[in-house]
Amino acid sequence: LPILSVIGPLRGENREGDVDGGEAGKKLGVEAVIVAPSRELGMQIVREFEKILGVDNKKVVQQLVGGANRTRQEEALKKNKPAIVVGTPGRIAELSASGKLRTHGCQYLVLDEVDELLSFNFREDMHRLLEHVGRRSGGDLKSNAKKAERQLIMVSATVPFSVVRAAKSWGSDPLLVQAKKIVPLETLSPEPVNLSPNSSANSSKPSKAVVESLPPALKHYYCVVRLQHKVDTLRRCIHALDAKFVIVFMNHTKQLKDVVFKLEARGVKAAELHGDLGKLGRSTTLQKFKNGEVRVLVTNELSARGLDVAEC
């Protein structure tokens, strides 16, 4: 959240003009757009902003996540004139296309979990956002001059080849910022992942940069079991480790309900989290997990991407 040092009330500038719709508000408008691949992650970012900004300044940030009431979002944009908007690609692109969200003068575009935002599902919406956010009137967006007007921040736990390629294509002189160093991205030459069955065993080893970025106390365990024994092995591991907060990732959404049923049948409080649940159901499930009412959260990779549960 370093953006708050240059945007909004924490930078020491008076934003009263924004609220009243005065000239200052018209000049500033939306200064930062933050894009997240899921509603849960988007709302988590909004709540973190609100904690830092405090009750009096919470209107500086506005959520634009899919699944929420679009009319109310439009009304909030018009009334509050936020400096920062946080949302999912589809909803932000919709409001941009309708003219309700004007981002041509935006200074910062943040793509959280960018490796997921690069997926085919978001391609059309991301194309619009990259074309319109921070675009000044006239000129070619692909030129270095246009790229320099808008700072693009791409956040990811890993730096796969697709992210490096996107950064070089969308940005100007991109930098790779890691926990211990900052280097020009041009010096990084990642190799595409080799999925060939004939690839050597060494190709599957994590890079030195990945290993260094992992928490030093993190431990990994794995069990090789038959498919029909997976859920019971999971239950036994949970009890053996005395784990109080457990997130179980699965590849297929249709498997979640079955796993939850089997865990519950053996006395383990569990719940599923996936995109097919309604907004209320997803938020209720997540809150129960954070409160400790649910011990095991069974989810797919996208739904839980970027979620922060301190005890987990």
Automatic annotation (TrEMBL):
It is an enzyme of class 3 (hydrolase). Residues 233-312 form the Helicase C-terminal domain. Keywords: ATP-binding, Helicase, Hydrolase, Nucleotide-binding. Residues 1-177 form the Helicase ATP-binding domain. One of its GO terms (molecular function) is RNA helicase activity. Its EC number is 3.6.4.13. It catalyses: ATP + H2O = ADP + phosphate + H(+). Gene3D superfamilies: P-loop containing nucleotide triphosphate hydrolases. It holds the Pfam family DEAD. This is RNA helicase.
